[in-house]
Specification:
It is a single chain. By secondary structure, this protein is an alpha/beta fold. Helices cover about 40% and strands about 15% of the residues. It is built from seven helices and seven strands; from the N terminus they run E-H-E-H-E-H-E-H-E-H-E-H-H-E. It has a seven-stranded parallel beta sheet, sandwiched between helices. Helix 1 crosses helix 7. The radius of gyration is 17 Å and the shape is globular.
């Protein structure tokens, strides 16, 4: 059986790292991006290779349109060299960061940053990748629980995630003839370094736990397995859907 390959943006830490490890455990080779910490990226490559899979990483700045194109071109060139084919199977659009600011105080620069990172880069990276995704492949876009419920100060970020959910439904519709599925995974509050690691702080964690049915803050390990499932044969009939993984936050 031919080994499948996944491309993951933001795979060197947090949620993306756990996605990469879970997919590698399922026998998938990994190409992932990192923003600036090459040393950490190399450590993740070693983890994946220890699981018996190939891995490589390329630098990527989701706030820079040229970097989007460079990342896909680097990935395609690597695939062509390694596999004698530029095709791959799974695209996971995960890279991102957050801006915390009230609507009254949000600057145009902050708004544009969220637009570029969470919507424009995802749209055009996916566009560039489409010719290279194998028939029967999968696209998974990472959204947020904040596209369903509202917490003050996150409007610019949440707006872009809402748009990604609409984009995903259109992908599912347009790529159906190629048997490529497109789905959204929407994590709730996760204790990672995202947005300055605020969900790790004791007061914030206590608040999140009090409004979450399962009574705790999420961990990166709660998300990676869901992505791996959607990329498996067992997840093949799920298409155009939003799967929230929040432990029952604000249900």
């Amino acid at each position: 059986m031919k080994t499948k390959t996944a491309i993951i943006t933001g795979g060197s830490r947090g949620l993306g790292h756990d996605m990469a490890i879970n997919l590698a455990k399922n026998g998938v080779d990994i190409i992932f991006s990192y923003h600036s910490n090459e040393e950490k990226a190399n450590s993740v490559i070693q983890e994946i290779e220890a699981l018996g899979q190939k891995a490589t990483a390329f630098q990527f700045d989701a706030n820079n349109f040229e970097s989007v194109q460079n990342f896909i071109n680097s990935s395609i060139n690597y695939l062509q060299k390694e596999n004698n084919s530029s095709n791959f199977d799974y695209l996971i659009n995960n890279a991102g960061t957050g801006v915390y600011n009230l609507i009254s105080d949000t600057t145009e620069a902050q708004f544009d940053e969220m637009l570029n990172i969470h919507l424009k880069s995802v749209y055009f990276l996916t566009q560039a990748a489409l010719p290279h995704i194998n028939e029967g492949g999968r696209i998974i876009n990472i959204s947020s629980g904040l596209a369903r419920f509202s917490l003050q100060g996150m409007s610019a970020y949440a707006i872009m995630k809402g748009a990604i959910e609409v984009f995903t439904r259109y992908l599912a519709k347009e790529l159906g003839p190629r048997k490529i599925t497109a789905n959204v995974v929407a994590p709730g509050a996760i204790a990672t370094d995202f947005a300055g690691g605020s969900n790790k702080k004791e007061d914030k964690a206590a608040l999140i736990s009090s409004i979450t049915a399962l009574g705790r803050v999420g961990e990166a390990e709660d998300i990676g397995g869901i992505v791996a499932f959607l990329c498996s044969e067992k997840g093949g009939w799920i298409n155009g859907q939003r799967i929230e993984a929040s432990g029952g936050m604000l249900v």
